[in-house]
Amino acid sequence: MSLGNSASDTKEDVAIENSQHIEEEIIQPPPVEDLLSICTKLLQMKESIAFPLRDLLVMLCSQNDGQYRSNVIMYIIEEVKLCNSDSGNGNMLHALFHVLALIFHEDAVAREVALKAGVVKVATDLLSHWVSSSCDMENSQIPKWVTAAFLAIDRLSQVDQRLNADIAELLKKDDVGGHQTSIVIDEDKKNKLQLSLGLPSKNISIQEQKRLIEIACGCIRNKLPSETMHAVFQLCSTLTRTHSVAISFLDAGGLPLQLSLPTSSLFVGFDSIAATIIRHILEDPQTLQQAMESEIRHSVVAAAN
To answer: Within 10 A of 6 (CB to CB), how many other CB atoms are there?
Structure first.
């Protein structure tokens, strides 16, 4: 009685193992560096794929507990550094800043990585050079990367809007007589209050914020088109939440400039943003602290009901 051809069985087993090995090799993703290089080339070919690429890059940032997040952000920032706005790389700069803005909007941890990598200085240097070297900007076509850069920095300046639980508990405490206790807010608690209300964190230094305000006022002075002005004023609205930065906006002539803009520079929602900036200028730290406490108390009461 034959037990079969052992040599044939062995060959079949080897073939199956080889096939499985090939399948495993096929499904292995390429190295992150190769993916990033491909993404850059795709952006050069067609900037409109920024949104699909955003999804891919955000996925890479969150994969394996953020193992590749630094690789992704650092790669994009290095590509921005390689681009010179005067050498015909405007479209590439626009695409890179656009992708950064989209990532910052989705991934809060990516913002921290980018801040540590010095993205603010990179973007600020590019914008400063463009503002100082551009003449008659009012009548010339504004590069799209300028708007994207302002948007990226504004997204970078956003913080978690969730109410800080510790402060909420502190504000809910009553004294023995049933009245709410008076709260003394030290610097650490003040920072937490600022974060809970969505105020800018201290990751972007005051010096950097003031420099950005000066650049923004330079853009406002040149009465740029409405699309760019929208991004500029949105950033100003975010940064001026810090009172000293709001005063810098005033000292740079931002207030009279924003009140004398032509119709071509106005955009939907301008009145609201302009009013917010004016309020930030008028609110000294003590008034702001009282407003913050009042807003948090209101939020706590509303949540309790």
So the answer is: 8
pLDDT tens, per residue, the chain with 305 residues: 445 455 555 555 555 565 555 555 555 667 888 888 888 888 878 777 878 887 888 888 888 888 889 999 999 999 999 887 666 678 889 889 999 998 998 888 899 999 999 999 999 999 999 998 875 555 568 899 999 999 999 999 875 444 344 444 544 444 444 444 444 444 455 555 554 444 444 478 999 999 999 999 999 999 999 999 999 999 999 999 998 999 999 999 999 999 999 999 999 999 999 999 999 998 877 776 777 788 888 888 777 76
Residues 6+ apart with CB under 8 A from 181: 173, 174, 175
The single residue listed with the structure tokens 């491909």 is 38
Flag whether the pTM goes above 0.90. no
Q: How far apart are the first and last CA of the chain?
A: 85
Instruction: Compute the C-alpha angle 202/57/47, nearest 5°.
Output: 100
Compute the distance between CA of residue 122 and CA of residue 81 in angstroms, rounded to an integer. 7
Domain range summary for the chain, segments of one domain joined by +: 28-136, 157-305
